[in-house]
């Protein structure tokens, strides 16, 4: 039985557009577990508001690069690490774009591959470029001001970074769109499509 750690933000955690959390069986991590016939351990370690490496003045404990090594030791040994982060990096108060988000994911990859106190082997890594942000609504319209255009470059920068770091790459925007309800999070169909797109990647790494 292999361990697959899904390291992300609210899109991985299972946030319902405009509030709430999907029931466990509707989250893409659980759907992936089903597609793998529950033969492996798929761990949802998503956290709403998590960034790659930016300290959020409004939310504590959200820096992805800070906690990746602890996560890998907590759940280790981890065979496959799926990283889907960067959406929160595009919040207005960080003032960065997709290029910087990709560099943040690269730092997480570097940390994930560093020696650890348990001598666990480094995991195989799948980098997922987050879906494009589509016309945020409500409070998120202000929070993600300017992010719609910036998110169009996720694919380009993440693909280049993944290739340079010998990781498998999936462009989420190529298989799904963010929910029209809030322009940021995944609807139930988006969760299903993401799981279905990731399943062959995981199978390839475990074969």
UniProtKB/TrEMBL annotation:
This is Lysophospholipase L1-like esterase. InterPro entries: Ester_Hydrolysis_Enzymes (IPR051532), SGNH_hydro (IPR013830), SGNH_hydro_sf (IPR036514). It holds the Pfam family Lipase_GDSL_2. Gene3D superfamilies: SGNH hydrolase (3.40.50.1110). The lineage of its organism: Bacteria, Pseudomonadati, Pseudomonadota, Gammaproteobacteria, Oceanospirillales. It comes from the Bacteria. Residues 6-192 form the SGNH hydrolase-type esterase domain. PANTHER family: SGNH HYDROLASE-TYPE ESTERASE DOMAIN-CONTAINING PROTEIN, THIOESTERASE 1/PROTEASE 1/LYSOPHOSPHOLIPASE L1.
């Amino acid at each position: 039985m292999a361990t697959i750690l899904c390291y992300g933000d609210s899109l991985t955690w299972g946030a319902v557009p405009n509030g709430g959390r999907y029931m466990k069986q509707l989250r893409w991590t659980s759907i992936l577990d089903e597609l793998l016939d529950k033969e492996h351990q798929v761990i949802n370690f998503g956290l709403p508001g998590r960034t790659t490496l930016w300290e959020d003045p409004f939310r504590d404990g959200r820096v992805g690069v800070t906690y990746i090594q602890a996560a890998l030791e907590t759940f280790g040994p981890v065979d496959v690490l799926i990283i889907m982060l960067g959406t929160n990096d595009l919040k207005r108060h960080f003032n960065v774009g997709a290029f910087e988000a990709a560099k943040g994911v690269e730092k997480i990859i570097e940390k994930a591959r560093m020696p650890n106190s348990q001598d666990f082997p480094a995991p195989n890594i799948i980098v997922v470029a987050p879906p494009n942000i589509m016309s945020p609504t409500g409070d998120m319209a202000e929070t993600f001001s300017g992010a719609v255009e910036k998110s169009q470059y996720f694919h380009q920068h993440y693909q280049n970074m993944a290739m340079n770091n010998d990781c498998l790459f999936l462009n989420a925007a190529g298989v799904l769109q963010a929910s029209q309800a809030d322009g940021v999070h995944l609807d139930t169909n988006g969760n299903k499509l993401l799981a279905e797109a990731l399943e062959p990647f995981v199978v390839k790494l475990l074969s």
